[in-house]
Design a protein that fits this description.
By secondary structure, the protein is of the alpha+beta class. It has ten helices and 20 strands. It folds into three domains: 240 residues, Rossmann fold, CATH 3.40.50.620; 52 residues, SH3 type barrels (Roll), CATH 2.30.30; 145 residues, Translation factors (Elongation Factor Tu (Ef-tu), domain 3, Beta Barrel). It has a six-stranded antiparallel beta barrel. A five-stranded parallel beta sheet has the order 3-2-1-4-7, sandwiched between helices. A five-stranded mixed beta sheet has the order 9-8-12-11-10, with no helix packed on it. A hairpin with a 7-residue loop joins strand 15 and strand 16. The longest helix is centred in the N-terminal third of the chain and has 18 residues. InterPro entries: MnmA-like, MnmA-like_C, MnmA-like_central, MnmA-like_central_sf, Rossmann-like_a/b/a_fold.
Length: 466
């Protein structure tokens, strides 16, 4: 680890060693108001690029009575640009975010799923619409139906994501006729390739990731050294800002009509209590049942009949899965699925968990992928394959993406609470191959196991330093 005193000097002496490459002179850096994007903009400027900062507005906070941090984020983004001496711009994607991120989110919750808006935002807004709005000429990007803004026009775009580009994090190794690869960052704990697992290789040749080869501690140190203590001390953003300080159930009820149902004991089928709608819950959630001593845990949800099945044991086999199926996979690069050695692929379904080895099998539709895994089930609470879940995504703004097939996934070891609507990412070691929406899973209990599963330890899978 570089010492604090030497860290800034090291950057100061080495940042200019790579000059303009491949005719890249101007770069638009997405500025969120956080430390990672702020340091990214600083590093770009130190390298000699003409840097512009852009703040993305994805939500109209006036529509909701929230304590959304949007205004504070905008102020901090403006402060960063002023401090670094770069122009500040704001780009409004409220309508697009609503159509391509928020509506699919609501439709997923309506089906009892647990969706991820960040993956959709990166796929459709940040690394699609924003990138296309920034690039100077139509020929720079395969999708040319979005005209570039004259103010935002640039040769490349940069973000503060912890990931790397095979063309170099400043595109210094970019070549024609070769597809760029999305690679894991040096900081494995902060690695964010999971969130970018459905972007396209068509945008990657224009995407810089200045902090991809740094540790978070180094990024924070740079922020302090260059006088951005105000940004350094900010808490990292978590969750969906438009919810504000309200409970999620209070927020979601503004968009979905509550459909009352019942809690049932998974093993006895006894009705335990009533609830106000499956869209308030997710697998593994702790539920206090007033009539009984001790908590229960959500192990299965039947959104068609509004039944939530509960278990008392946090190690109950119904909470652990080694088989799941997903909708059409979205591949970053253009090689067909048949060229990928499925036995060398790693599966990651939470950004905070270590990946596990898996075996993938392709199917033409979700029902076939589901049926393949269900054939040996000993218990079955629902015959639904959740085929309609993948259809909530509107991909109409994408052009010639590598999408499909549907997949069955068998994991090397069971994982806890793999829920429909969540996303998984696929890796070949450090290369992020793509991602897919999980539409269903089969628990160890459904496979016939009756005893508690104690082999799963949180510490075995959580990404940590050291």
């Amino acid at each position: 680890m570089l010492k604090r005193r030497n860290l800034f000097n090291w950057f100061g002496s080495n940042l200019n060693c790579v000059t303009y490459v491949n005719s890249i002179h101007s770069v638009v850096c997405a500025i969120s108001g956080g430390v990672d994007s702020a340091v990214s903009a600083y590093l770009l400027k130190k390298k000699g690029f003409q840097v512009k900062g852009v703040f993305m507005t994805n939500w109209d906070s006036s529509d909701e009575n929230t304590d959304c941090s949007l205004d504070k984020d905008r102020q901090d983004a403006q402060f960063v640009c002023d401090h670094l001496g770069i122009p500040f711009f704001e780009k409004n994607f409220v309508k697009e975010y609503w159509n391509y991120v928020f509506l699919p989110l609501i439709k997923s919750y309506e089906q009892g799923a647990t969706p991820n808006p960040d993956i959709l935002c990166n796929r459709f807004v940040k690394f699609n619409l924003l990138t296309r709005a920034v690039l100077k000429s139509k020929n720079q990007c395969a999708n040319d139906d979005v005209q570039a803004s004259s103010n935002l026009a640039a040769d490349a775009i940069a973000t503060g994501h912890y990931c790397q580009n095979s063309f170099g994090n400043y595109l210094q190794y970019r070549k024609d006729n070769i597809e760029a690869r999305l690679l894991r960052s040096v900081d494995r704990v902060k690695d964010q390739t999971f969130w970018l697992s459905t972007i396209s290789h068509k945008e990657l040749p224009y995407c810089m990731f200045p902090v991809g080869d740094l540790l978070k501690t180094q990024v924070k140190q740079i922020a302090q050294d260059i006088g951005l203590s105000r940004i350094y001390s900010r808490r990292e953003s978590m969750g969906m800002c438009f919810i504000g300080k309200r409970r999620f159930s209070e927020f979601i009820d503004n968009y979905l009509e509550p459909k009352p149902g019942v809690y049932k004991d998974l093993e006895t089928d006894q009705v335990l209590e009533e609830h106000t709608g499956v869209h308030h819950f997710t697998l593994g959630q702790r539920i206090p049942i007033k009539r009984f001593n001790g908590p229960y845990y959500v192990s299965k949800m039947d959104c068609h009949n509004q039944i939530i099945y509960l278990v008392r044991d946090p190690a109950h086999p119904s909470l652990f899965m080694r088989k799941c199926w997903c909708g059409p996979a979205v591949w970053i690069n253009s090689e067909p699925f048949s060229s990928i050695n499925s036995r060398n692929i790693q599966f990651q379904w939470q950004n905070k968990w270590r990946p596990v080895n898996c075996i993938l099998k392709p199917f033409s539709d979700i029902s076939l992928a589901s049926a393949y895994l269900r054939k040996d089930m000993k218990r079955c609470l629902s015959s639904s394959d959740n085929a309609t879940l993948a259809s909530v995504i509107d991909a109409s703004i994408e052009d010639n993406r590598e999408v499909g097939p549907c997949l069955s996934i068998e994991l090397e070891a069971p994982m806890r609470c793999i829920a429909p609507g969540q996303w998984c990412a696929f890796y070949d070691n450090d290369i992020c191959l793509g991602g897919a929406m999980i539409c269903g899973s089969i628990s160890l209990w459904e496979e016939g196991q009756n005893t508690s599963y104690h082999e799963w330890n949180h510490s075995d899978y959580e990404l940590t330093y050291g």
